[in-house]
From TrEMBL:
<protein>
    <submittedName>
        <fullName>Uncharacterized protein</fullName>
    </submittedName>
</protein>
<feature type="region of interest" description="Disordered">
    <location>
        <begin position="41"/>
        <end position="81"/>
    </location>
</feature>
<feature type="compositionally biased region" description="Polar residues">
    <location>
        <begin position="58"/>
        <end position="67"/>
    </location>
</feature>
Length: 310
């Protein structure tokens, strides 16, 4: 089997030693390159042979033709969504959600949201098929078939709209669409939410000293390759976080569903580029791509916990 060598040093580090308290020697001092070849995965989930994202047609020229929601007080919407949503339900809900965008955002080309979490595993057709095939042949594997929410990164969405369009309340407008959709389908208010933003790492550009969102930046610099959904009317695009950030975030939470998702993601890398995974290789991969997670500050106990999960 051909094994893809990682682009960063693969020699044992202090973190590979039993007495290590940190692994700062592997923390990249500069912004890591985002060349797709730097990952054991293809440049996109869709490059694995999945069907193209939902229709990527241009927005309608007559914006007024999009359905416009009526006035709403948002009454009766529970704060938490307890309804399980499968792939078909997500697509149906997102199609409606996209129809509300023109009324809230006016004459804009498109809303782009970077998303993460379990919804990505469902919206990406190839990953969903791989999960189904794995569950059918491995009695221990449990396929994720539903999710209760879509996680999106609000902080960078707000910043992008403020800088590009001068819209300072973009996330508030988006939340109006989220609530209207919750009303329409009997969902909880957090069926789409950015609650995880507070736990996502930020990074500093060493050249400018400016803070930036490394997860968002890695996703949008891949062009359309990580797009997992485009609405039929063209007003909404969902872009997944990169495979390495997906694994890194799931390694932190690490509930049973996350463990299954990680296995599917790593298996997709194996199938796409004949990657032979070992705990050490996984460790090096995360250190080289997701250094902004602050791995250098991990104490001995957190290092042991990460290794047990690997």
């Amino acid at each position: 089997m051909s094994v893809l060598s990682p682009p960063w040093p693969s020699h044992p580090s202090r973190w590979n030693g039993h007495s290590a308290a940190s692994f700062s020697s592997l923390v990249t001092p500069v912004i890591p390159p985002l060349d797709p070849l730097d990952s054991p995965f293809p440049s996109s989930f869709n490059a694995l042979g999945s069907s193209p994202p939902r229709r990527s047609s241009h927005p309608q020229t007559s914006r007024h033709q999009s359905p416009t929601p009526g006035p709403s007080t948002f009454g009766g919407v529970p704060p938490r969504n307890n309804r399980s949503l499968d792939r078909d339900a997500l697509l149906h809900i997102l199609d409606y959600f996209s129809s509300l965008i023109p009324a809230r955002f006016g004459n804009v080309p498109q809303i782009r949201l970077v998303v993460h979490g379990g919804a990505v595993m469902l919206l990406n057709a190839e990953l969903a098929r791989l999960a189904a095939a794995t569950a059918a042949t491995d009695g221990r594997a449990k396929q994720r078939t539903t999710t209760r929410d879509i996680d999106y990164i609000a902080r960078s969405f707000s910043s992008e709209w403020a800088q590009r369009y001068g819209v300072l309340d973009a996330n508030d407008r988006l939340k109006q669409c989220i609530f209207e959709t919750a009303l329409q389908f009997g969902l909880g208010a957090d069926w789409m939410n950015s609650d995880a933003d507070v736990a996502l790492p930020m990074a500093t550009d060493p050249a400018t000293g400016a803070a930036y969102d490394p997860i968002h930046a890695a996703s949008i610099q891949t062009g359309d390759s990580l797009t997992v959904y485009t609405s039929p009317n063209g007003f909404l695009k969902l872009v997944s976080v990169t495979p390495f950030w997906t694994v890194a975030l799931k390694m932190v939470r690490y509930n049973p569903a996350d463990r299954e998702d990680i296995c599917i993601l790593l298996r997709s890398g194996t199938l796409a580029r004949q990657m032979h995974w070992t705990p050490t290789r996984l460790e090096i991969w995360l250190l080289g791509t997701c250094w902004a997670m602050g791995y250098a500050g991990y104490d001995h106990e957190r290092i042991k916990q990460m290794r047990r999960r690997m």
